[in-house]
Design the sequence.
C-alpha cells in the first residue's frame, strides 16, 4: 500500500497478533522519526538499533518463517486426515 500505518491497521483487522502489530508500529514510528532531523538520533542509542533489528526478525519469523514451516508439515499429513480436518472446520477447498 501507500500508507504503512493503514496497512498495519488492515492487518490488525485480519487478525494480526498484538505483539506483531506493536513490533510493526515500533519499527514504523522509530523509522519515521529517524528520517526527520532532531526527532531521534539512532547514533545516540546503539541499543535501539539492535532492538529494531530484533523486532524485524521477530516479524519475519512470525509472518513468514513459521507459517511456511507449518504449511510444509501440514502438507505431509495423510489426505484422509486433512479431509477429516476440513470436514470438522467446514472447509471444502483445503
Sequence:
Amino acid at each position: 500500500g501507500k500508507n504503512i500505518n493503514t496497512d498495519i491497521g488492515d492487518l490488525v483487522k485480519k487478525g494480526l497478533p498484538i505483539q506483531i502489530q506493536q513490533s510493526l508500529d515500533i519499527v514504523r514510528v522509530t523509522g519515521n522519526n529517524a528520517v526527520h532531523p532532531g526527532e531521534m538520533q539512532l547514533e545516540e542509542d546503539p541499543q535501539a538499533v539492535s532492538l529494531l533489528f530484533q523486532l524485524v526478525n521477530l516479524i519475519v519469523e512470525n509472518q513468514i518463517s513459521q507459517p511456511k514451516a507449518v504449511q510444509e508439515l501440514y502438507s505431509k499429513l495423510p489426505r484422509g486426515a486433512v479431509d477429516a480436518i476440513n470436514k470438522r472446520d467446514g472447509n471444502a477447498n483445503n
Remarks:
- The first helix runs from residue 4 to 13.
- The chain is about 70% helix and 0% strand.
- The two ends are 28 Å apart (CA to CA).
